[in-house]
Amino acid sequence: MPKRLLIAASGTGGHIFPAIALAQKLPDYKIGWLGVPNRAEKNLVPPQYYIHEIEAEGFQKPFGLGTLRTSLGLLCSIYKAWQVLIDGPFEGLFTTGGYIAAPAIIAARLLGLPVILHESNAIPGKVTRLLAPFCTAVILGFEDAAKYLPLAKTLTVGTPVRGSFFDKKKLDLPIPEDVPLVVVVGGSQGAVAVNQLVRQCANTLFEAGIWIVHLTGENDPDVGSLQHPQYIQMPFYNEMPALLQRANLAISRAGASALTELAITKTPSILIPYPYAAENHQAYNAAAFVQAGAAVAFLQEELTPEILSSKVLDLLNSPELLKQMTGSAIHLARQDSTERLNIIVRYVMDGKKIPKINN
Ligand SMILES: CC(=O)N[C@H]1[C@@H](OP(=O)(O)OP(=O)(O)OC[C@H]2O[C@@H](n3ccc(=O)[nH]c3=O)[C@H](O)[C@@H]2O)O[C@H](CO)[C@@H](O)[C@@H]1O
């Protein structure tokens, strides 16, 4: 009989893709997915994993009537997650944190099932901090996150990326092979502020012969306002491995999966952390890359189109510097994160003690 694992990963690519990477390593398992109606998992989770839907939302400040409604909603979601686990019947839970993790972890632990939690950010999210002590294993993307989780059993393996990032891919976009290519990516949902900055400096870059692939996200009101033969814009692109492998430079937010993929594809980057990320965690994610010399980072509020275009031109005109950044990225790229996570999940699901893993 195959082992039965429920995966709770919802809302953004950064939560869903690492879970897909793990699921791809468990072909001998029966996997079910726990998601929220109409969130990104609807489009991103491969169809072979059935998505069981529950509601999940966070507590908003100031506390008041809304808190009562959210508390009742949480109780309801715990009950639904509990039912999904029993009906499966699932033998364990894997989650990447976020709002959906709260009802899923509580329900699984009430049923006495093992829980593996993966936290990809340098500063763990609220649900991770609250519930990590109750999980069987807490797996980290960044070693530094452990200091925020003193009561949890943590192991650092990095953040899993989809298997396709490790194969050499050819880019299927009409871009000449010998031109410099800059990719602009604002995380899985796009970043309107970054998009605006890039559009304002695009002409300077085009004049220098640079091509731009701009992944705008679905909610950019100015999509279509810039047209140029050296410019390709899309709301979302599925072939990120080929694109990052081909790019000479990326302008990116600093989500944990994005950073890991940039490291694995050895793509130098200019990072613009999302300033409103919970507890500014993207700035901490970015800092690890800047300290290692793999990226440069700017605060969004200090960045002007002039600063951005001159940084892009400086970097693309300095092959030695780009090479150094690429070299530094190699040291950050943990090639075996998914495999290590896979081993841990199997040990936990088999009820065995997790072996010591060397970092
Ligand atoms: C605003 C915010 O709080 N974002 C968080 C969210 O980010 P978000 O969901 O944006 O996650 P990341 O930036 O880490 O990753 C984006 C993912 O989307 C993929 N992608 C993106 C664009 C595209 O066109 N095609 C595509 O496939 C990338 O390859 C990557 O796998 O979850 C991450 C993991 O907890 C956090 O680190 C981020 O801080």
Short description:
With 359 residues, the chain is an alpha/beta fold. The protein is built from 12 helices and 13 strands.
* Cα-based radius of gyration, to the nearest Å: 21 Å
**CATH topology type of the largest domain:** Rossmann fold
Query: Shape, please?
Result: globular
Average pLDDT for all residues: 95
With strands numbered from the N-terminus, the spatial order across the biggest sheet is: 3-2-1-4-5-6-7
What is the CA–CA distance across the termini?
Answer: 33 Å
As for the number of domains, it is 2
| CATH superfamily label of the largest domain | Glycogen Phosphorylase B
List the total number of helices. 12
The major beta sheet can be summarized as:
7 strands, parallel
Parts with pLDDT < 50 across at least 5 consecutive residues: none
CATH class of the largest domain: Alpha Beta
Amount of beta strand: 15-25%
Instruction: Spell out the helices and strands N to C.
Output: EHEHEHEHEHEEEHEEHEHEHEHHH
Bound molecules: uridine-diphosphate-N-acetylglucosamine
Helix content: 25-40%
CATH architecture of the largest domain: 3-Layer(aba) Sandwich
SSE class: alpha/beta
Strand segment count: 13
EC number: 2.4.1.227
Pfam families: Glyco_tran_28_C, Glyco_transf_28
Domain Glycosyl transferase family 28 C-terminal: 182-336
Binding site for UDP-N-acetyl-alpha-D-glucosamine: 12-14, 121, 162, 188, 282
